[in-house]
Amino acid sequence: MIQFHLLLIILTAFFCNVAVMAKEFSEKFEWPGGYQAGLSLSFDDARHSQIDTGLALLDKYDVKVTFYVVPDRVKERLEGWKQAIASGHEIGNHTVHHPCTGNFDWVTPDNAIENYTLKRMRAELLDSNQQIQELLGTTPKSFAYTCGRTTVGRGLDNKSYIPVVAELFTSGRDWQSESANNPEKVDMAHVLGIKMDDMSFEDIKAIIEETRKKGHWVVLAGHEIGQDDGAYTTRTSMLEMLLSYAQDQKNKIWIAPVGTISQYIRNKRKN
Q: Architecture of domain 38-270 in CATH?
């Protein structure tokens, strides 16, 4: 009798685990075309190397990315940025003045985000959109938080401007996050973005593999594109391996701009 009860307990535990696994599998997010995860590459600040080095490399692998640009930087490589649009890349908003925390010594009081108000930030985002439209003929639908800061003001007057981003854009990307995005849960106005600057391909691949197991969406964020090491440089050698890996159909990774994937997720949620 004791053996029978023990067997019953074991079988019950087994079938409970099977039921849980089946439930998790059935609830896994459905990506298009048999893909198992989403991947977006994004680059900030409209740095010269993105045009001078990055475009040719991205075109080689026929990969489309999101560039979060600052209008004044766009003017310095205007024809290149027009070519980026012609090649199918997404242009996102990254403010006009790129405010950061005043805790950094290099940030002036005028550019310290602690000295911003919600009204000022909203006006700057609209101004940036207008300038980008005039320069490139496209109005950004995606935004990236400068220095990863999602609030304005200081102390008791500190306020989130995520609602402003939610009003003006279809997505807002964070910086130096620690996780990929669960497509069923992600707040599109606060999409997690993982640093790819100064990272090895092995480290990035591990992140993507874990993302694929969960059926999630990883957004990678970088700045310069070049051969040299640097805290704010995505190395071309790493990028080549990443692009080749992502484009290999057997890996079942859907690589597309932030705006493309965020809109797909929105549509799936509606349905």
A: Alpha-Beta Barrel (3.20)
Q: How confident is the model over 175-190, as pLDDT tens digits?
A: 999 999 999 999 999 9
Question: How far apart, in whole angstroms, are the C-alpha atoms of residue 198 and residue 227?
Answer: 10
Helix ranges, the chain (H): 2-26, 48-49, 55-61, 71-76, 78-86, 118-136, 162-168, 201-214, 236-247, 258-270
Q: What is the pLDDT of residues 145-157, one digit of tens each?
A: 999 999 999 999 9
CA–CA distance, 258 with 44 (Å, rounded to integer): 13
Give how far Cα 208 sits from Cα of 24, 132, 194, Å.
19, 32, 11
- Is residue 190 within 8 A of residue 150, CB to CB? The reply is yes
**DSSP secondary structure, 145-212, as one string:** -GGG--EES-GGG-EE-HHHHHHH-SEEE-SS-SS-B-TTT--GGGB--EE-TT--HHHHHHHHHHHH
* Residue 50 contacts residue 42 (beta carbons within 8 Å): no
Domain boundaries, the chain: 38-270
Name the strand (E) or helix (H) holding 39.
strand 37-44
Of 206, 207, 216, the C-alpha closest to 178 is 207
